[in-house]
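On clarity, I found the account of how folds are encoded harder to follow than it need be. Since the whole study asks how a given chain folds, the encoding of that fold should be made plain. For the editor and my fellow referees, an illustration may be useful. An entry of this sort, consisting of the sequence and the corresponding backbone structure tokens, reads as follows:

:::
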Amino acid sequence: MSSGPTGRRKQKLKWSKLYTFSCLRPTTDESAPTDRLLGQPGFSRVVFCNESQLHKSKPHKYPNNYVSTTKYNLITFLPRALFEQFRRVANLYFLLAAILSVTPLAAFNPVSVIAPLVFVVGLSMLKEAIEDWHRFLQDRNVNSRRVKVHVGNGLFVQKSWESLLVGDIVKVSKNEYFPGDLLLLSSSYEDGLCYVETMNLDGETNLKAKRSLENTLGLDEDAAFCKFKATVRCEDPNPSLYTFVGNLDFEKESYPLSPSQLLLRDSKLRNTEFVYGVVIFSGPDTKAIRNSTRSPSKRSRVERKMDRVIYLLFGMMVLISLISGIGSALFTKSGNSKEWYLLLHDDTDNLFDPEDPMSSGLLQFVRALVLYGYLIPISLYVSIELVKVLQAMLINKDLAMYDETTGKAVEARTSNLNEELGQVEMILSDKTGTLTCNQMEFRKCSIEGISYGGEVTEVDLAASRRMNIDGSEDTKTGNSRISSSQKPTVVKGFNFRDNRLMDKMWIYRSNVSDMIMFFRVMALCHTGIPVEENRGNKLMYEAESPEEVAFLIAAQEFGFKFCQRTQSTLVLQELDPSSGLEVKREYKLLNLLEFNSSRKRMSVIISNEDGEIFLLCKGADDVIFDRLADNGRTYQQATVMHLSMYAEDGLRTMVFAYKKVGLPEYENWSSVFKQAKATIGPEREELLENASEMIEKDLLLLGAVAVEDKLQKGVPECIDKLAQAGLKIWLLTGDKKETAVNIGFACSLLRHDMKQLHLCLRKESPSNQQMKDVKEEILSQLQSYNQLITEENREGDPFALVVDGKALEVSLSYDVRNEFLSVAMKCDVVICCRVSPKQKALITRTVKEHSGKTVLAIGDGANDVGMIQEADIGVGISGMEGMQAVMASDFSLPQFRFLERLLIVHGHWCYKRISKMILYFVYKNIAFGLTLFYYNIFTGFSGQDLYDDWYMVMFNVLLTSLPVISLGVLEQDVSSDVCLKFPALYQEGQRNICFSWKRIIGWILNGILASIAVFTTSIYVLSPSALNKDGNVADIEHIGTITYTCIIWTVNCQIALMISHFTWISHFLIWGSILCWYLFLYSYDILPPTYSKNVFHIFTEQIGPAPVYWIATLLVLVISLLPYFTHIVIRRSFFPMDDHIIQEMKYSGTDVRDTPMWLREQEKSKQLTQVGYSARVDAKIRHLKEQLHKKRKSFYLSVTNSPVYKTVMRRDVVSTLH
């Protein structure tokens, strides 16, 4: 990095000469004695700067900078993965069954039990390994980032982050992230100042100023570190982002350190060419990593309910096993057991004693537990995991969710929660970077009580179209500006078109002096600096906030170009109204009083070339209006009206004012201010604030400005669809209340007729006020709001709750929480302002636990990680603010608008697919497993299996597993377009209609009926008649094979009836599975008897040629499917669901032939919506109709009360009488 004049152009400015308030960060008393803390527990860390080799061994050995988020490693994978698999009750049961299968108690060959278990567990472990491998690759990308590290003799070389050690000297360049927690030694600025963006840590977009110690300012080039040695003694690693206690021992002196010298990992260097720093905390010791938590194990609501279904099936299995054990004991005890052909006394079974019915019954119970294990679907878990992986692949490949601007697509980072996407009831969203682009645009202004840049909003246009009101030519052509130039906007950050101000036309307005002062406030009252020239002799700017950049760009467009800043001067190139030429003027900067959250205003005190002193002030409307002089309120009424209009359009507003300060007044104030600055102690801030109040009063109002925090593309439309789908949306932001409310209007979360309930502390509570009084104040507000909501008619009066950070902190305390959540859940929208990352996570956890609803959290920064991990589903925006939110998320999106399709389309599909899939598994395993039970009843509870061992293996592994995968991956009740047109369909998942206990029990009963139909029909068709012309009757092998064939046909045809959306894949897998059974049976029965045993030539020579085999199969199929077919006919004919109606309309072509009916069905989904663009348009229509009605009524009253009307009416009466 060059240190010459060109490279050091910006360094000339010494910001330490300008007093600024500490903005949005805790203050630290640097004079506090730290020596007494150092060396004590918690403050024992010692760092040897530029001697990192000393930290490779004890006693000062610290971890390297490698960071890992993986769940396993090579050593722990096998034990931990096996533990995870056998936490599932079904897998644990089959492990027990596998162990029993190698004992004499087994009813099957051990291979038939062990092979499916190994297959299922192996596939699940493979999936875990692949997902952890992806986490490892992401870690490697972070750990392999490069940074310049001092290796000796003033030489800096590029090294990977993971190789850094505590004590290393690093050089970080502009727009790079800090690789660890660094102690700032120097920067490209002469006074050691640097700017840091902490978006990834606290979500704040304004830049933070950090400053090195004066004693290390000389370390400003590579060669200066040849002989540099120092020792840092500081606090131990901790998660506190805003505190740091330590001393720097350098050149035999000790200097206290504060958070101002600490650069945190994952922060970004901005507006500074380079910094030098020493690594204090590395890897897992850094504050960013200490604030992160391991991603919790999340399971969907459907999967948790599926466990209870497994428990129910397990209970059924124990019950029928108990029946079998008791039945066996009773059969043994009866005289039937003494029949000679049973051979019960031949000692063929050492575990069976016909003389001891009780012990024999107990052993039979244990054997039955293994025999009836097919009631428990062992392949369910692995099939669902496979299906979810395929679903995730389809989600990832959806081109409708690909963002061409960034080249990024949606990514399902975990496949465990696909179906949970279809059951979301609440969305907790971050604002900056999630709903907005964090790009400010200058949109409107109000000067001298006149509004400029006015426009007809999209809401107005939509309302006009809905009311069939013809707009102006501008409206028809899409140009909604009331007065605009024909020149399109080409300047980034400036989206303002009004020919009354543009192209120097403002110089012809009346009262030009106030307009000049307005533009001077815009161009001089800021913290920005010019950084480079753009095309067309235009300057670019950087500042602590994006609003200031937008103001500087706008001022430049209006003819007031901010050119240069030094320690004490501001240079402005102004447009001179008298001559129409641009002149360069220099203003002396006397003081700068910076904006912060408590002041809500910023002021600069300047003197012009004539020696006149002015205070230029900008800030929130209420703060500025309170400080206006009596003669400075000329434009206040008009400005207030304009501010209200701007706010309703979702714009951020700020008011401009000024005053001329006399020299004696300034000198008197300056002495007071300097004395306050020189004060050391806790009263310093209060004295400074009081001094500021002395000068910031008796202001003259100039006007207001409105900037737009540009929403991401499609955000209002997305929120509208989500609201129609029945989702409630909460906005959680670290921004101030006014900003959050403006964004609420911009994205149509709020509307003008919505009653806003503001929950806040009435005033700043004094230090001696008890927490009890604060809680009582909040409780009183909550109770009054609760009563208001209860008394109001909710149909026409939507409510929005707006909560600030301090009130929220009290509201989340244990004894206030329930009352707060009671009010919040009744409101249509909740907006929480000034929320810390920890509060975001706490809100998410509290709402989830209190409401029991499925909560989705979405954010883009590291400050959203806690919220994302606490939610049932966490979504990260892969935007411009690093990858922390994405790495902690379950799903990542390029932009917020894709959440609409992710939930309403893919969420809806995945929920219905997984629900149908589980219900089908329950059905087919009951239908199959209970035939074994019926056969045991038929054979005196003998514990004998009806089917060949290989039949048992093939049932779940091949013959019924593939069609269910096609159901889980490709099924669609309606198309994606229909899902988006009818978002109310999404509410089926919210109400859990498809996986309710009513439906589960229904499918269990369907499986029981199918098993009865298959077994009884097979037995009674085959028992009374010969199998072939030779008179041979069916034995156990014949009955088992024929019954098995009927089961295969029944369960595969059943899934064909369940599918709404057939593809060639579905047909291929369903009918191919049936064909596979015949191919397997043919291949198996032609094997030598050594392998095929009792089924040798059973198909080719025995049952295949027998007509009764094919007739029985067809008869059983019809009888077993008849109950379900009858049910769906009755359901669709007399009790149709929404998707049934839409399917009928779509497939019958009603959507084309009867368009009004189709549109009417669409409108039904919007009737209950109080939030969103559509609801806002409806509210606007009601408002316009009310105004029209009032005007008509007023016109009617004015006409009927006029003397002319009365005279005419009197004449009519007289003429009528005559």
